[in-house]
Amino acid sequence: MRTKTKPKDPFCQRIxxxxxxxxxxxxxxxxxxxxxxxNIGGARQVSWVLHSSSRKEQLPWxxxxxxxxxxxxxxxxxxxxxxxxxxxxxxxxxxxxxxDLRKYLWKPVR
DNA sequence: AACCTGACTTCGG
DNA sequence: TCCGAAGCCAGGT
Length: 110
Description:
Elements: H1 10-21, E1 28-29, H2 30-36, H3 43-58, E2 64-65, H4 79-88, H5 101-104
Parallel strand pairs: 1-2
Helix pairs in contact: 2-3
This protein binds a DNA duplex through residues 1-3, 5-6, 9, 11, 29-31, 34, 39, 41-48, 50-52, 54, 61, 64-68, 71-74, 77-79, 82.
């Protein structure tokens, strides 16, 4: 793996843009991003783009979490790293390691 | 071309 | 509300 998803793909570009627009202290879900990028149901695809672009493009991938409001990464594989980054931005995790999406979910204007 | 895998989502029990 | 199974999309092998 680790191969880069086609950087030419409109989806990739759109997704990367959306993620860049996520303000500090806010988060978005994969499904949300996918839908905004015009690819409803392509939540999994969003993860691929992040995997391939986050490192090169230095995207705020930490602001993208799953619909449950939790981090999907496994402990030892980025989980702690992402949590730390978010907490540093002001995002609060409850006792169950969940984020209050009602409060932190990014609602793009337009 | 076929099958596998993944930082997901949703539905049913 | 939690858990398991099915459904989804695209890239990798």
